Amino acid sequence: MSEIKKKTLLSWSSGKDSAWALYSLQKSLDFEVVGLFTTINQKYDRVAMHSTRVKLLKKQAEAVDLPIHIIQLPDPCSNEQYETIMKQFISDVVPKEIKCMAFGDLFLTDVRQYRENQLNATGIEPIFPLWGISTKELSEQMLSSGLETYISCVDLKKLPKHFAGRLWSKELITELPENCDVCGENGEFHTVVVNGPMFTKRIPVSIGEIVEKEFVAFADIIPINLEVYKNENFV
């Protein structure tokens, strides 16, 4: 048993895999998650790919009781710009005794290699708490735990538009095409988590407009201000 846990920052996409990585690390004897970090599109003020509103992102951080580092990326953003911004972020956290950065990747070797290269010679160890778990097994674990997550975007080359904005569930999984990964690990879809065993409270949301852009359908997952709704007699 480790006497001192390694201080760890978790890459937080706002989706189910990063949330489950947090849950796994919360049970670890070796690592202590001391914060989250997320890249957002500066122009749209949303998480890249997942299209999560920053307001909802901050509510997630509150719900898991962790500080979040929001890293702004320009739009458009070249790979060179991205790497420069991330190198600066990494150099900023090294003096804070951060020993590890965790990622929710499962099996995409090229993505893992890229992350390892980014952290090479920085003194920060990349860790992958979900690596190698089958997505069928993972989906069963997540859903049986009560994880609540909505599909925020779908690749229209792989899935029809009507999946956008829906609750990710056992029923939805049965509707997926045979060649579609149940967790969307090949980019078929991305999610936004609103509740689960890693959360201290559920985030109420509504599903807003669904927009198509460049072969991707985005669903606007909107956090609900319950006090405002009560005042307006909506609940």
Give a short summary of the structure.
The protein is an alpha/beta fold and 235 residues long.
**Count of individual helical segments:** 7
Number of domains: 2
Query: The biggest beta sheet, please?
Result: 6 strands, mixed
The overall strand count is 10
Structural class: alpha/beta
CATH class of the largest domain: Alpha Beta
Q: Helices and strands, in N-to-C order?
A: EHEEHEHEHEHEHEEEH
User: What is the third-level CATH name, the topology of the largest domain?
Assistant: Rossmann fold
Distance between the termini: 49 Å
The CATH architecture of the largest domain can be named as: 3-Layer(aba) Sandwich
Keywords:
6-stranded mixed β-sheet; 7 helices; 235 residues; alpha/beta; disordered C terminus; 4-stranded antiparallel β-sheet; Rossmann fold; single chain; 2 domains
Describe the structure.
It is globular and about 45 Å long. A hairpin with a 4-residue loop joins strand 2 and strand 3 (46-47). It folds into 2 domains: 6-127, HUPs (Rossmann fold, 3-Layer(aba) Sandwich); 136-231, no CATH class. The protein is built from 7 helices and 10 strands. Strands 1, 2, 3, 4, 5 and 6 form a 6-stranded mixed β-sheet that branches. With 235 residues, it is of the alpha/beta class. The model is unreliable at 227-235 (pLDDT under 50).
Helix and strand topology:
Blueprint: E1 6-11, H1 16-26, E2 31-41, E3 46-47, H2 54-63, E4 68-73, H3 79-93, E5 100-102, H4 109-119, E6 125-127, H5 135-145, E7 148-155, H6 170-175, E8 189-195, E9 205-213, E10 216-223, H7 226-231
Parallel strand pairs: 1-2, 1-5, 2-4, 5-6
Antiparallel strand pairs: 2-3, 7-8, 7-10, 9-10
